[in-house]
């Protein structure tokens, strides 16, 4: 074992992109891949198979506190609801509850598991894109707030209420179609803004008159634009008094997720990567930096680049606290700040972050099973995992992995340094774990471990698949210490 490469200052020396994108690492991550812990990590992979997901909830508590501090400084009643769909592991449900956060569930099974962890119904909101009758019945049974998306959902709730004696049902109307910069913001979720009052006035099911309360407004916006959120909040606040006049005691405004985070500390690396990728696409005679010159959403047509990046903005600013502060400090109707307007209307502000409060909470570790040189000269490094185990809907995960050597590189090998691509286990030509070309200055070989940093938010579980009958990755909680210890998360113990 070459312990020098595991020093925090040189941790990235075994692997980097041909255009480097160096991950920001948490202290527990550095401990988990340190020289003293490497054999324990190797043992865990042997015991549980490859890949494994490593989890640590300490950064989650810090991230929730960061948002709470912004709201507290402005005296805004506020509560975070953890978007459970971002990661299935129950250690994060427990941590969120410990921090006083609520839980946002997106399925009946998520709801069942959260209730079994002792989370009260009034600390849960259901925002599932598809709400079956049984899911809605479970929400009603456990007094969970339901984010109503359409007339059919509302009709199903009415049918369930008629079928049994229910004292009260808590509903949040999901709103879309906000106007921003002269256009309507698109979302497939919710009622159009202009249709909310007609819904309450003329289409409200009679069966709900005495039991259903619209306790909140809710919206979902794609992307991370603070100004779009400001527009949506301003318009939502104008709806609140109108709904109260119609007899609904609106208590909260929920702005959904989309709170930005940054995987990288170095903006210049991010800019340099895109500059090199664009040059590679425009000049096909140059060395590619992605597999077969994949444009990650960009295309070169007659020397001109078309399209837009189809990846998460792995470097962005502002993030989390500064982004949230910008929203709360924005003007509302030229009289108040948004924070003051929320206070004046006696509302609780809510949000449903997933990725941003799981920032720093996980890593995915896979074992190298082969290295082979392609006729192009590039190397393919095969890992015992598939691309659904570290991917969302983006084209690629643009963060350099960490390589932990299982043994010293051979001094007899004149070509220790190689460049190539990480490939996965699915039997398709497109099974690339990373589309970027990577450098391995100290070589890489069978038995080495490849660590993907900061994967807890969406990357571990959102698309994971058992195709080819491969088992799903085991999820291990990493306890910090001089020699980190791992235990199996309850989600895997309960299955």
TrEMBL record:
SUPFAM superfamilies given in the database record: Alanine racemase C-terminal domain-like, PLP-binding barrel
Upper lineage: Bacteria, Pseudomonadati, Planctomycetota, Planctomycetia, Planctomycetales
Annotated GO biological process: lysine biosynthetic process via diaminopimelate
Family annotation (InterPro entries): Ala_racemase/Decarboxylase_C, De-COase2_CS, De-COase2_N, De-COase2_pyr-phos_BS, Orn/DAP/Arg_de-COase, PLP-binding_barrel, Y4yA-like
Pfam families named in the record: Orn_Arg_deC_N (PF02784)
Needed cofactors: pyridoxal 5'-phosphate
Gene from which this protein is expressed: ldc
Keyword list, A-Z: Lyase, Pyridoxal phosphate
Top-rank taxon, per record: Bacteria
Name of the protein this chain belongs to: Lysine/ornithine decarboxylase
Enzyme class: lyase
Ranges of residues in domain Orn/DAP/Arg decarboxylase 2 N-terminal: 77-269
EC number: 4.1.1.17
Record's keyword annotation contains Lyase: yes
Gene Ontology terms, MF aspect: diaminopimelate decarboxylase activity; ornithine decarboxylase activity
């Amino acid at each position: 074992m070459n312990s020098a490469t595991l020093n925090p200052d040189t941790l990235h020396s075994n692997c980097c992109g041909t255009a480097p994108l160096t991950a920001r690492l948490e202290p527990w991550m550095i401990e988990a891949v340190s020289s003293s812990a490497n054999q324990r990590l190797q043992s865990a992979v042997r015991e549980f198979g490859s890949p494994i997901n490593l989890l640590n909830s300490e950064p989650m508590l810090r991230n929730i506190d960061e948002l709470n501090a912004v709201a507290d400084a402005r005296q805004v009643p506020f509560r975070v609801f953890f978007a459970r769909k971002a990661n299935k592991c129950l250690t994060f449900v427990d941590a969120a509850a410990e921090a006083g956060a609520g839980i946002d569930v997106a399925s009946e099974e998520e709801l069942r598991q959260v209730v079994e962890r002792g989370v009260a119904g009034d600390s849960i909101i259901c925002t599932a894109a598809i709400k079956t009758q049984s899911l809605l019945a479970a929400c009603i049974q456990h007094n969970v707030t339901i984010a109503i998306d359409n007339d059919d959902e509302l009709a199903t709730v009415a049918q369930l209420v008629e079928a049994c004696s229910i004292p009260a049902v808590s509903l949040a109307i999901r709103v879309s179609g906000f106007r921003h910069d002269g256009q309507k913001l698109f979302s497939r979720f919710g009622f159009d803004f202009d249709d909310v009052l007609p819904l309450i006035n003329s289409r409200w099911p009679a069966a709900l008159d005495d039991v259903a309360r619209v306790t909140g407004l809710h919206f979902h916006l794609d992307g991370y634009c603070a100004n779009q959120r400001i527009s949506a909040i301003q318009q939502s606040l104008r709806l609140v008094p109108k709904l109260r006049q119609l007899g609904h005691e609106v208590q909260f405004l929920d702005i959904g997720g989309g709170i930005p985070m940054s995987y990288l500390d170095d903006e210049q690396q991010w800019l340099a990567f895109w500059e090199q990728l664009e040059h590679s696409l425009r000049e096909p005679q140059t060395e590619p930096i992605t597999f077969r010159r994949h444009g990650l959403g960009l295309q070169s047509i007659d020397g001109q680049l078309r399209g837009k990046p189809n990846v998460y903005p792995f470097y962005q600013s502002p993030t989390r606290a500064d982004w949230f502060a910008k929203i709360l400090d924005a003007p509302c109707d030229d009289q108040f700040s948004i924070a003051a307007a929320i206070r004046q209307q006696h509302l609780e502000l809510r949000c449903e972050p997933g990725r941003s409060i799981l920032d720093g909470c996980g890593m995915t570790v896979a074992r190298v099973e082969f290295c082979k040189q392609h006729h192009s000269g590039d190397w393919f490094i095969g890992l015992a995992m598939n691309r659904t185990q570290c991917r969302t809907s983006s084209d690629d995960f643009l963060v350099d992995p960490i390589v932990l050597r299982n043994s010293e590189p051979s001094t007899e090998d004149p070509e220790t340094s190689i460049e190539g691509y990480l490939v996965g286990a699915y039997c398709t030509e497109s099974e690339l774990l990373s589309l970027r070309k990577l450098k391995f200055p100290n070589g890489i070989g069978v038995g080495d471990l490849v660590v993907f940093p900061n994967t807890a938010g969406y990357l571990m579980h959102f698309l994971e698949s058992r195709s080819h009958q491969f088992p799903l990755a085991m999820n291990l909680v990493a306890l910090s210490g001089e020699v980190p210890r791992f235990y199996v998360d309850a989600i895997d113990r309960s299955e």
